[in-house]
Every structure is written in structure tokens, then in C-alpha cells.
Amino acid sequence: MNFNKLIVVFALFATVLGLSVKAGAAEEATTKGEEKKGFNATKVIFGHIGDSHEWHLFELNGTPVAFPLPVIAYSPTNGLQVFSAAHFEEWHESADGKAEISNSYNGLHLERAMKEKLVTDDGSKVYDLSITKNVLSMLIGIVLLLWITTSAAKKYKNGGTMTAPKGMQNGLEAVIIFIRDEVARPNLGNKANRYLPLILTIFFFIWINNLLGLLPGGANFTGNIAITSCLALVSFIVMMASSNKHFWSHLLNPPNVPFLVKILLVIIEFLSLLIKPVALMIRLFANMLAGHIVILSVICMIFIFAALSKVAGIGFAPFSIAFSIFMFMLELLVAAIQAFIFANLTAVFIGQAIEEGHGHEHDHHTSENEIIA
Amino acid sequence: MDLLTPELGLFFWTLIAFLAVFFILRKFAWKPILNTLGEREKGIADAISAAERVKAEMGQLQAENEKIMAKAREESSTMMKEARETRDRIVNEAKDQAKTEANKILTEAQAQIQQQKMAALAEVKNEIGNLAVEVAEKILRTQLSAAEAQNNYADMLAQDIKLN
Predict the structure, then answer these.
(1) Mean pLDDT in chain A?
(2) Are the beta carbons of B26 and A201 separated by less than 8 Å?
(3) How confident is the model at residue B1 (pLDDT cuts 50, 70, 90)?
(4) Residue A198 pLDDT exceeds 90
(5) Where is A141: in which H helix or E strand?
(6) Which of B11, B25, B31, B41 to mutate to test the interface with A (most CBs of A within 10 A)?
(7) What is the pTM of this model?
(8) Of A24, A256, A306, B107, which residue is most buried, by most CB within 10 angstroms?
């Protein structure tokens, strides 16, 4: 609990620090008589939730403090190119004023509107495989996850079977047992052990990345649809790969139904089959994105008010901070809940696919579970 | 809508990284951890059942012990009772015997006393008889010498007898 508090306090401190510099810069800009007026919350928020080719920490006296990340681009014409994003250093507004465009390097430049995109100068196709902020954040998360789990596993090996768990191992064990007993076994029955590694990996992968995303300056990794679609695809493929005859016969030939209804049912069943991974994808994406946006919005309100008048900004700050503390607490909860739901629904879907014909009683049970989740 | 279009690069890296993490964790983390957990649970279940069994055995042993104790107590009490009875019997027998012995001695003593009394009486009678004969003899002798003197003498003798 103390650790969480620390994170929240640090997060607020850093966010306020980072944004205040920006607000100061914005104010300066207005005094210079440029077009920008007040504080552009949209830009700040989307800058934080979007992916980037640099890891932006904060701005100091108008200059951004950021680490450039490696750009890896593959285009059919130019082949593979690897260089630092530091080469994109000069930014100017596009003609329509909707996007920011960087200088060109190696025939490539970045376009930053709602998202940052790598495009070629001549408009030809390019595949952007850069180690972006999200990818780096994921790698950090993976290193942490591997370190935590393998060190715990080592403790199990060294300690023998009958020693009590200690420290980190203890916390990890509680979660693993929870996933095993509450997620895997009820849905997968006697085949739980086979799918347990996948479900545990999904849960911990999402959870740790959710939490890393909450850190100040962290990336909005799990609130990115590319990530959630990837995870949903994995669970869909596993579901399809493990589906058995009973599942398909039930889907293609629903028993005890008249012919016309049968056709309708098959169509609906197929749609629901495809909707399952989509629901997984959207749910995690939307939840994490919304959480990030709400927290950032609440913080940004301080600076919106501050842009109107300094007194209003200072006056509003306590309310804003109090509310964002509340939101941070909520997000810590949501981080675990969303990871649990993703893992649980994956288990439910796999459970449906591998279910043997035991009559319809079980069917209702799993669908109920799905609705609750 | 921009937010809803997945970036290829991110998708690509996530897929690779997730699969790598999955295979690494499956081999080096989940399998050993889950195996150990399973073994531990089995161990705990075994230990609990063993404890239950030992407890049942202990209960049985205790019951047996109690039975033995009860039996021993019963035996000791019967032995005590028997001992008491034997003692009483011996004491009573001794008393009876003593009583009969005493009675016998008493009757014997009485008989002896009676006998000696009879003997003494007989002796006294004989003595009296002898005295009477002696007196008569003396009287007769004195009568023969003088009548008066004889009478006086007889009186004197008679007085002697009285004094005796």
C-alpha cells in the first residue's frame, strides 16, 4: 500500500512539474503574440497517450527532455534502415495546420497529428518497425516480469516443495493460485494445467504493463489498440487451435432447431465467435485509454484554469490533485481487474472451445460467466 | 479514428515479445512454480491425512489405555474386597476358636474345681468321722473310769469340737 501511495505522489509531482513547464511555455508563447492561445490540453493528452519515437519526460524552459529511440524502417525499395530518432529534430506545422511534420532524414519523416507516423517523403510504402516508446516500455515490463517470475521460480527450486513462500514469491504465489483456482480450473476443468501457462502469461503481461503505464512518464502501452489486438489474436488463435469436434458441430449444426432458424443461428454463432476477440481487444484498450485520458484531463484542468488566471489555477489545483489521486487509486484497481478479465475471458473462450458434450447445462454456465465479466 | 488503427510495428513487436515471454515463462517460471505448488498441495494433503490417521490411532490407543486402566482398577478393587473378606474370615475363625478354647478351659476348670470340692468335702467328712470316732472312743474310755469326770471331759471335748 505504501508503495502505491509513493507511486501516486511521485506521479502527481512529476506530472505537475512536467506540465507546469509546458504551461509556462504556452503562456510565454501567448505573450509573444503567436497564434496559440492558452493551454492546449488536447495536444498534451494525445502526446501522452500516443506512441512516439522518442521518450518524452518533461520540458525544461521550453526545451523537451527526451530520449531518442531507434527507428527501424523497412521499405521494399530501400530495404532495412536503422537510425536514431534524434535525426528528426526540426518540426514545423503542416500546411493545413492539423499536424506537425519533422525534417526529412534518409527520405523519411515523422508526421504527428493524433498519432505519430513514419512516412516516406515520396509517399511510397514503408513499414515502421521502430523500437518506439511503447515497445521500449513493453521490453522494460518484460524484463521486470521475467526477473520477478524466474527469481520466484528459483526460490521454489532451491527451497524445496514444503517450505513456506517468502517475500515476492509469496505475493506472486497468491496471484498464481488465484488465477489457477478462480480462472483456469472453473473454466477449463481437467485441462486447466495445459492452458494455465498461457493464461498466467496473459494476466501478468497485461498487469505489469498496465502498472508501468500508470507510472509518470510511462507509456500508454495497454491502452493501444495494436497491443490489445495482438493479445486478442493470440487468445483467438489458441481458442481455434484447441477447439474440438463438439464445438464445431454445435456451432454448425445446432441441435433441436428447425432448419430456417438453424441457418440464422449459424450466422449468429459465427458472428459471436468473431466478436469474442474483438470484445477482448476493445475492452482492454478502451479501459486503459479512458483511465489515462481522465487522469491527464484532471491534471490539465489546473493549467487550463491557470491559463485563464493564475489564482484560478492555484485555487483549482487541490481539487484536481485530490480527484486525480482518486483516479490513480481507481486505475491501480482497474489495471488488475482488466488483466484479470482478459485472462478470465480467454479461459472462458478456450473452455467453450474444448468443452465436451455434457448437455446444455454447462453452456449456460459459461455464457453467464461471460455476461458477468 | 486514428486511435483505432493498430500500428504495424507495435503489433509486430508485441506479438514477438509476447510469444517469447510466453515460451520463456512457461519453461522457466510457470512449470516449476505450478509443479512445486501442486507437489506442496499434495504434500500438505498427505500430511493432513497422516495427521488424521495418527490422531485416530492415538484416540484408539487412548481408548485402549482407558479400558486397561478400568480393568486394572476393577481388578484391584476385587482383590481388595477379597482380601478384606479373607481377613474378616480369618479374624472371625480365630475369634470362634478362641471362644471355644476358652469355654473348654472354663468347663475343665469348673469340673476340676467341682472335683476338688467333692474331694475336700469327702476329706472333711472323713476327718469329722474320724474325730467323732476319736471323741466316742475317748468318751467311752473316760466313762469307763468316772461317770462325772467323763461327763466333764465329754463337755470339754465337745467344746473343743465347737472351737474347731
Answers:
(1) 82
(2) yes
(3) low
(4) yes
(5) helix A133-159
(6) B25
(7) 0.72
(8) A306
